[in-house]
Amino acid sequence: MASKYFRESAYRLEELLEKKILVLDGAMGSMIYAHEPTEEDYRGERFKNHDVLLKNCTEVMCFSQPSMIKRIHMEYLQAGSDIIETNTFNSSVICMEEFALQDHVRELNIAAAKIAREAADEMTKQTPTKPRFVAGSIGPTKKSLSLSVDVNNPASREVTFD
After folding, report:
1. Alpha-carbon distance values, 45 to 18, 39, 49 (Å)
2. How far apart (Å, rounded) are the C-alpha atoms in residues 62 and 131?
3. Can you give the residue ranges of every domain in the chain?
4. How far apart are CA 153 and CA 133, in angstroms?
5. Statement: residue 1 has pLDDT above 70
6. What 3-state DSSP class applies to 83?
7. Cβ 77 vs Cβ 123: under 8 Å
8. DSSP state, 147?
């Protein structure tokens, strides 16, 4: 069933792209920061006693503030976005290590996708002739993969592709 849904969505997306330019949403991080969240907002109940500060870890807000994340998606959709990105820009093991959340990456990505999908589906129901799409957001890591960290070994890297 899911694969049929994805094929239909991909076909519809390609069909629309042949006819018009589609609008992608804007930056999720700046929209979150505009709400001026506190450390407690980032933590929520789930990470209330987490050992590491979570302020500025916008991805964790998919757990602690899902309604805020959905509202931001809805604002972009109401402003005319055809495609919204998941709140997962830094949701990789490498980036989440900084916040000691690397073990939650898969769950974070799934939660973010569900929130975005819910918003897109809600908006599409309101205007069925204008379908909305969700794209996974993948940002860079803080590790350079092209430069060696060891001057004595030019092939050395902090992380590998795997």
Report:
1. 46, 12, 8
2. 23
3. 22-135
4. 45
5. no
6. strand
7. yes
8. S
> Tell me, what amino acid is at 12?
R
Contact 117, 111 (CB under 8 A): no
Question: Which tokens in the block code for residue 51?
Answer: 């050992």
**Token pair for 14:** 């390609």
Range with the poorest average pLDDT among 3-12, 32-41, 49-58, 133-142:
3-12
- Report the half-sphere exposure of 58 (CA within 13 A, side-chain side): 20
Distance CA 95, CA 97 (A): 5
CATH code for residues 22-135: 3.20.20.330
69, 61 Cβ separation under 8 angstroms: yes
Number of residues written out for the chain? 162
- C-alpha–C-alpha distance, residues 148 and 158, integer Å: 8
- Neighbouring residues of 52: CB distance < 8 A, sequence distance ≥ 6: 98, 99, 100, 101
Helix axes 66-78, 105-126, angle to 10 degrees: 40
> How many Å apart are CA 88 and CA 58, to the nearest integer?
8
